[in-house]
Structures are given as structure tokens and as C-alpha cells.
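Hey,
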Amino acid sequence: MPEPCQNCGAELFAGQQFCRRCGTPVSASAPVTEAPTQLFPQEARRAAAPAGVRTETGPVGAQQPTAYYPPAAFQQTSPLVGEPFGSRPLAVQPSAPPAPPAPRRRGGAWLLALLAVFVLGAGLASGAAYLWWRATRGPVIIRKINAPGVPAVPQAPPAPEVPGDLGDRIKEALKTAGVPLPLDETGAVVSGDTTTLTRSYALDGDSSFAVHVVNGSVSVAGADGDEVVVKIIKRGGSAAERGGAHVLESKTDEGLTLLTAPGGPSVSVSYEVSVPRHLRKLEVEADRGDVRVSGFAGSVSADVRVGEVEFRDVSGEVRSRVAKGNTRVFNAGAERGGAQQFSVVKGNIEATLGADAGAELKAETLDGGIEVDESFGLRVERAGAVRRVAGRLGDGGEGLVFKVTNGDIKLKK
């Protein structure tokens, strides 16, 4: 059982030599092996601590610090000891004024300026010396020296002489090849807003004649003889604008072709043509314009986008196509030498046939009506929206066909 201390009554443990509270030896005969440990009352410890000095008590032995405590000397000399953080600003110690910047050295700029002046002066001096040298020397003569054993440099052959008629030769070659060239308009008659030009060509019966227009009419009439006479009429615009609407000509062994080059929108180019009556073939194309063919016995091909088409006493083979416009056919009853077909996409067809006309007639419209003279003895048939009529006229003969997509057909005597 543990014994109490005889001095303070604290509990003593076995083997303990001193009281851990008061430091009294447990037995007088015990050897002194460690310094006595004495506990002081709390009041005494508070009184013993000097003012302004922070005391710390903690467990005996080494341990990790949990807070930083400045040394006592710093606490005594620091002006902020004992005051809360941020209560007043730290004293700013006066500092020495900043040293003035070192002056910049400009020796490099002067050196570069001197170098530039020197280079400029040297260049001017060199140029003047070269001019003086060239003025005092005579012309430089280069002599040709032929070293033995070294082949002489061959001289370049002289440039071939360009013949004066080269342009005419090229033009003639292009004509022979059938390339369309601008028509020579020398001798054209200018009157007001009209420019008229007339040209003649010799064509035999086996030849063909073709004319293509952009904006203008074409009138072709068959005549006796073997000469084609073309009258070109330009209307609208100024004289310069009409001159810019060129007519291209191409003449080969097969025939003659005239083309209208696109010109100003205010200029139209029309043709009045007289051709041999029995010319092998006549071809007419028009983007916008009317076409008339009369008294012709050869083959005819007509293609019109927008315009009126008229055939009068044409006895040869005919293929006529109109995209938008009307077609009129007049046949007094002359014997035809080939089939004739007239077609219109949007427009009407009106045919006037002689009393003794003979043909195998066919007429058809997809969206329109057909009117037939009673003297023909033909009846119109209906199949939905389609109207058609077919039969023989007179003693019959070559086919006579009329086709309309959107429009009417009228057959009369």
C-alpha cells in the first residue's frame, strides 16, 4: 500500500526517494541521485514572473512546437509587443533617395553618322572618277580573234523578211478553210439610223445558202439565175453602234454562210436575199425575228425561237420549227417536190391551200382546236385533249404535216 509524504501528505510510490510535490526525501538514508522537484503554488508562480515577460509551462520532454513565440529580447524591444495585429502601421524607416540614372552614351550614334557620310562621299567620288575616265577615253573596239584550233562561233542567220501581203495571205487561208470573217463594209450607205450594205455572190445550183440572225428579220425570195444578192440593213443606235454589229462571212465550195455577231441591244440586223430558185438548200436561223420564204423550189430548213414564219409558194422539202410564234403557209396548188412539215410549240398555224392541191394531210394539236374547211371533206377527231385530222387532199402527193403543242390549227382554201 502506498505511503503518504510526511511533509505534505502526497501519495508516494514504491522506490520513490523524494516527494514529487514538496521535494522532501522519503528516507534520510536514501542516496541523492536526481535533483529535487518542487511544485510551487499558482499564486507564487504568477508573482514570480516579471511584468511583460511571457511564461510558458508545458510537459517535460521534447515535442513539436505548435506556435512561434519570439525570444524575450525581441519582445522587450519590439514596439508592437502586447498590441493586436493591425492596430497601427509599422514605422517606415527613412530611406536614401534613389541614385540618378547614369547618363546615356551617344558615341555609337555619332560613329554611325560619320560612317554614313564617309560611304556617301566615297560613292560620289567614285562616280565622278568613272565619268571623267569615260570622257577621256575613246570608243572601245572589240575585235574578233580566232585562235588556232578553236572553231569559230557560228553567226545567227538573218531574220526572215516578212512579206508585205502576209495579212492578206492569212485572211485568204482562213476564208478557204471556211472560218467566218468580218464582212468588208466598204461602200455602206448610212442614212439617219440606218446603214445599208449590198453584196453579190455567184453560186451554182448544187450550193447552199445559210443565214443566222440574232435580232432581225430574214426575207428570202427565189429568182432566176445563179447569183445570190444580199442586202444587209442595220437599224437603230448610232453609226458607231451599228458598225460594231458585225456580219461574218464564210464562203466555201459547199456554199455561203452569213452570221450576225451579237451587237448592242438597240441595233437590229435584217437581211433581204435573192437566191437562185433551184438552189439545193436554204437554211435560216433566228433568235428573235420574222422569217419569210417565197418562190423557192429547193430544200428549206427554218428554226426560229421567237417570231413569225411565212412560206409562200415553196414547193421543195420544208422543215420548219418555231418555239414561240405563228406560222402561215400559202400554197396555190403547185406540185411539191418533197414532204413539208411545220411545227409550233406555242402559237398557231394557218394554212391556205389551193383547190387542186394534192397531199397526204395530217394535223394535230395537243392543247387547242382544229378548224378545217368543209370542202376538204375531212373530219376532226378527239382523244382527250388531243385534236387531230388526217386524210388525202385531191389526188394525194407528198406529205403535208402540221403539229402544234399549245395552239390552234386552221386549214382553209
